[in-house]
Amino acid sequence: MEFDVLVVGAGPSGLAAAIRLRQLSLEAGVDLQVCVVEKGSEVGAHILSGAVFEPTALNELIPDWRDRDAPLRTAVSGDKIYFLTGQKSSIRAPGMFVPPAMHNSGNYIVSMGNVCRWLARQAEELGVMLFPGFAASEFLRGEDGAITGVATGDMGLSRSGEQKGNFVPGYHLKAKYTLLAEGCRGHLGKQLIREFDLDAEAQDPQHYGIGLKEVWEVAPERHQPGLVVHGAGWPLAGDATGGSFLYHAEDNQVYLGLIVDLSYSNPHRSPFQDFQLLKHHPLFAETLKGGRRLSYGARALVKGGLQSLPKMSAPGALLLGDDAGTLNAAKIKGNHVAMKSGMVAAEVVFEQLSGEAAAGADLTAYRERFLASWAGDELHRARNFAPAMHKWGTWLGSAFAFIDQKLLRGRAPFTLRDSLPDHATFRPASSSPPIDYPKPDGELSFDRLSSVFLSNTNHEEDQPCHLQLTDADIPIRDNLPKFDEPAQRYCPAGVYEVVRENGEAEPRFQINAQNCVHCKTCDIKDPAQNITWVVPEGGGGPNYPNM
Amino acid sequence: MKVLVAVKRVVDYNVKVRAKSDQSGVDLANVKMAMNPFCEIAVEEAVRLKEAGKVEEIVAVSVGPDAAQEQLRTALALGADRAILVRHEGESEPLGVAKVLHKLVEREQADMVLLGKQAIDDDNNQTGQMLAALMNRPQGTFISELNIDGEQVSITREVDGGLQKIRFQLPAVITVDLRLNEPRYASLPNIMKARQKPLDAVDPAELGVDLEPRLAVLKVTDPPVRQAGIVVETVADLVDKLRNEAKVI
Question: What's the confidence (pLDDT) of residue A98?
């Protein structure tokens, strides 16, 4: 099947691009065929974000969003930042010390999954063809090597790769331009960056975090709709930086989470257990007490910023949003910048297709125009935030951020660097202090499996494993003795286990791929870079409601 | 031969449902909805019959909100020829749905009605049986095998004691069980084609059917949480607990 433009991924950047393309083509009176494929069972099923949403990009894309019943219903009414100094203590950062990027007035507390569901409806009304349940699995290439579309994955293959009774081969979806909007560490985006050497000119390698999130329903008297609480510090200390959040949304719901920067070095660290522990801090426990947990999920996020931003185009293909890495770490927001990148990409592609120029060109103008927009200015001003945190830790890093963001407004005459990739930061397990995490109490904290249960994750059981090991021996032979195989702990869904069954002398590395919530952390953090995340059968993965 | 297939929009089987905190029902806000898996098997069977040349037309029918068009489009993508949505917001009960289907069978002059044995939301397992009674025609329920030879239908039913084989005449009502077939995936070209296939919407009043619920839901609650088990030290401990705590011996 052939389209003018193919978008891979129905998240904020992909949907914004699709909407903008159709808007432009309708204005110009041409019928541009725009197709969006999404690996989730429906739009929103794989979306996980905080989220405090800054409506700048949406105001530009759909100025009358208020009249269209957009799910931006809870305006931010209060903004608090705390330094968690211990398991019971915290200090509130006085307002005057808070950098402007951290102020949230004018923003909304949203479920980004629901925002995407709404964006998808707007897109379909404009004539975008949207196909959830279809995973883009590999690139199609023209004779000159340019990207000419994608092939969706085969459906109905058995674990060993044989065709089952309901086998349907993948489709070739051809397009003049393919926009990759898979989010952080998209598997096609990763391939594009590698093949076309797109990160050659980036100053630093890309940096990541893992975000873990839960939605709770809390007692009405503990709920303050519109309140935004951010925390830094405990339980992350020493080797790890990151931050926590607690957003009071509508209907007595709160969204809370922990972001752990994947530059942490202690292989004994378990971001999942850090998150469970966090909820026992009074700052969180006071709100959650007596409430009930509604859902759980996790997703890696990209935070390298400007220094790590690759070239965003290759012949026939563009990288959108966090597939390239456009998140603004100082604002701890990515959605508005991702949407803006999609809109700029749409405009560049539309101009290209309206002219005489051919399909399959390398649209370098996209990156230039993106960086020339307000989004580029934001990324420039935010550039020192994340490296400072990694370099100097939460306390000194925050002091620096105050100077950099508040006093200099991001216009410092220098740029900080962070040149060690996240997979190379582990110290040996033997020389790292063990971390003693308490057992979950079943009220505030829970174990991994009961958490994954709430993500509604499912994969057809009899299908090829979508977590591929380049060398099957590395986990037990190398990672286990050196790092106590950290996959057992960094995976938020309990996918990886080292099992020692009765009578078996040798431990075995087990991959429970059906638990996978598609967060991509393993693909990023494995010290040997031995795990490759590929798309499973379309429709598999989490089914997040209201995430 | 013309076949009517009933299709219900339900919460996706992967979703863990929970009761609303006011106990008025199950929380459906933004949860993934899908075609009831048993209905999918019914659609698949109808499509296979059509592919085998035994059926000329497949009409998919759903009673539900406008959003149930999604599930009808899925049925069309799987191979149904056209679809009818009977608009109804809120709960639909088996008797109301059976009455709607009865009217449509008459209107469409359908020879066979294929339904899932039950829907995974209420698990009523009543609609097919009620429909057969209203039509005063034979019914074959929980089938795992279906053979059609002219007017003659032979089926295999899954019953408690094993398998039961029956033969009866069309027109008839058939409800399908899990082992009848494995539904196909809707292909991308067929999903696109399905968008062009006819989908009519009618109000139940046009059919002279009142779909207002006849049952009052008093409350819906989550099942009680299972207590964690304990490991006992000795056999004597175990016997003691079984006798004095569990009181089973």
Answer: 77
Bridge partner residues of B201 (DSSP): B85
pLDDT digits 0-9 by tens, A429-443: 999 999 999 999 999
As a whole number of angstroms, the distance between CA B3 and CA A544 comes to 36
Ranges of chain B with pLDDT below 50 = none
For the record, the structure tokens of A490 come out as 């960094």
Contact (Cβ atoms closer than 8 angstroms) between residue A483 and residue A432: no
* pLDDT tens per residue across span A385-422: 888 887 888 778 877 877 887 777 788 888 888 889 99
Q: Give residues with Cβ within 8 angstroms of A193, minimum separation 6.
A: A199, A310, A319
pLDDT (average), residues A302-310:
94
Give the start-to-end residue ranges of the domains of chain A: 2-65+113-204+306-381, 448-533
Residues of A whose CB is below 8 A from B30 = 44, 111, 113-114, 117, 545-546
Tokens 């008797």 map to which residue? Answer: B95
Looking at residue B229, its pLDDT comes to 84
Nearest to B127 by CA among B98, B103, B96: B98
How does DSSP assign A133-177, residue by residue? T--EEEEEE-TTS-EEEEEEPPEEE-TTS-EEEEEE---EEEEEE
CB neighbours of A479 closer than 8 A, spacing ≥ 6? A485, A486, A487, A526, A527, A528, A530
Domain ranges of chain B: 2-220
Do the domains spanning A2-65+113-204+306-381 and A448-533 agree at the CATH topology level? no
> Helix A112-125 vs helix A12-28: angle between axes, to the nearest 10 degrees?
20
Distances (CA, A) of A449 to A272, A295, A420, A456, B223: 11, 13, 33, 11, 19
User: Which pLDDT value is given to residue A211?
Assistant: 97
Q: Are A309 and A350 in contact, with CB atoms under 8 Å apart?
A: no
The alpha-helical segments, DSSP class H, found in A406-508 are 448-453, 474, 480-483, 487-490
Contact B21 A457 (CB under 8 A): no
Q: Do B31 and A453 touch (CB under 8 A)?
A: no
Once rounded to an integer, what is the mean pLDDT over residues A85-113? 87
Structure tokens at A142: 């023209």
* CA–CA distance, A73 with A509 (Å, rounded to integer): 46
A-interface mutation test, from B13, B24, B30, B45, most A Cβ less than 10 A away:
B30
Mean pLDDT of chain B: 95
Instruction: Flag if B185 and A155 touch (Cβ within 8 Å).
Output: yes
Q: How many CB atoms lie within 10 A of CB B131?
A: 26
Nearest to A545 among B31, B187, B192 (CB): B31
Q: Any residues with CB less than 8 A from the CB of A137 and at least 6 apart, and which?
A: A150, A151, A152, A153, A154, A170, A534, A535
CATH assignment of B2-220?
A: 3.40.50.620
The domain defined by A2-65+113-204+306-381 carries CATH number 3.50.50.60: yes
In this structure, the number of other CB atoms found within 10 A of the CB of residue A281 comes to 22
CATH 3.30.1330.10 assigned to domain A448-533? The reply is: no
Q: Is the pLDDT of residue A93 over 90?
A: no
Question: Which residues of chain A neighbour B21 with C-beta distances below 8 Å?
Answer: 217, 252
Encode pLDDT of A459-493 as tens digits. 999 999 999 999 999 999 999 999 999 999 999 99
Residue A44: list chain B partners with CB under 8 A.
30
